[in-house]
Design a protein that fits this description.
- By secondary structure, the chain is of the alpha/beta class.
- The protein is built from 4 helices and 12 strands; from the N terminus they run E-H-H-E-E-E-E-E-H-E-E-E-E-E-E-H.
- It is elongated.
C-alpha cells in the first residue's frame, strides 16, 4: 500500500468538493482548520464497526485481588483507549490455560451485589467506556483475579488522528478515498 501525506489527502478532498483546483495550496489558516476537522471526523469513525478495519488483541498482566483497571494512554493498561470490547476476551494462567470471560453490559454488571467477593479466575468483564479525569476507560473483572493471570482483550480501536499536515500515513485499500 502506498504512503501518502496528510496534506495531499486534504488538498485532494478540497478538489473533490470543488473548493480547490489542481496546483492550489492551502494557507496556514486553512491547514489548521482542515486538520482540526479531519481529526474530528477520524474520532467519530471509531463509533462504527465497519470503519474500524481491524480488531486488536492485547494482553495485560493482572494484579492479584485487583478487580478494576483504567485503560488508555498513561493508564494502568497503557494503550490506546478501546472504543468497544468484543468476544473473545479471556484470562490465561501460568500453565497457558485460557478461561473465557463473558462481556457484561452496565445493567448486568450493576446487579452484581458483592463485587469484592472472592479471588479466583474472573468469569465476567465489564468495560465502562466513559472517561476518567485522565481520559481513560475502566475495565472491571468479577470476581477479582487470583495470582499469575494475564488478561487478553479484543477491541475496536480508533483509526487514529493526525498530528501534522506533513505526517505520512498508509491505509488499507479503500480507506484513503473514504477519508478524503
Amino acid at each position: 500500500r502506498m504512503t501518502v501525506y496528510v496534506s495531499t489527502m486534504c488538498l485532494r478532498s478540497q478538489r473533490l468538493i470543488g473548493e480547490k483546483t489542481r496546483g492550489a495550496t492551502l494557507t496556514t489558516d486553512e491547514q489548521t482548520e482542515i486538520l482540526y476537522e479531519l481529526n474530528s471526523f477520524m474520532d467519530s469513525c471509531a463509533l462504527e464497526r465497519l470503519l474500524c478495519y481491524q480488531l486488536t488483541q492485547e494482553s495485560f498482566a493482572l494484579t492479584t485481588s485487583t478487580a478494576t483497571y483504567t485503560i488508555g494512554p498513561g493508564a494502568t493498561f497503557n494503550t490506546v483507549r478501546p472504543t468497544k470490547l468484543v468476544d473473545p476476551c479471556f484470562v490465561r494462567d501460568s500453565g497457558n490455560l485460557d478461561s473465557q470471560l463473558k462481556i457484561l453490559g452496565p445493567e448486568t454488571y450493576g446487579r452484581i451485589v458483592q463485587k469484592g467477593a472472592g479471588v479466583t479466575y474472573p468469569e465476567y468483564i465489564f468495560y465502562d467506556q466513559g472517561f476518567t479525569s485522565s481520559g481513560a476507560g475502566t475495565i472491571s473483572l468479577y470476581p477479582a483475579p487470583s495470582p499469575s493471570l494475564t488478561l487478553y482483550i479484543n477491541s475496536w480501536k480508533q483509526l487514529g488522528t493526525f498530528s501534522t499536515m506533513s505526517m505520512a500515513v498508509s491505509f488499507p485499500p479503500g480507506y484513503q478515498l473514504f477519508i478524503e
